[in-house]
Design a protein that fits this description.
79 residues, Lipoprotein, 2 domains, signal, 2 helices
Length: 79
């Protein structure tokens, strides 16, 4: 009679242990995965960074072109 009562009680008590063991076993893999994520650049991040660099280059070129045009107008007036 005691075995019938103790077996379900033991199973209920061990579910917490199984959960803890699962957490302990999977923790190193989760940490390693986070480290890889932090050290590598995803394709989305690379695309975003490339777009940002392209926009900055376009802005710089536009500014330089305006400066050249302004200088050209100034030279044309002085002639």
């Amino acid at each position: 009679m005691k075995k019938r009562f103790l077996l379900p009680l033991a199973l209920i008590a061990l579910t917490g242990c199984v959960s803890t063991v699962k957490t302990v076993v999977t923790a190193p893999f989760k940490v390693a995965g986070k480290a890889v994520d932090w050290t590598t650049t995803s394709q989305e991040e690379a695309d975003r960074n490339r777009g940002r660099a392209d926009r900055k280059a376009e802005k710089r070129e536009k500014k330089e072109r305006r400066a050249r045009e302004k200088e050209q107008r100034r030279e044309d007036r002085s002639l």
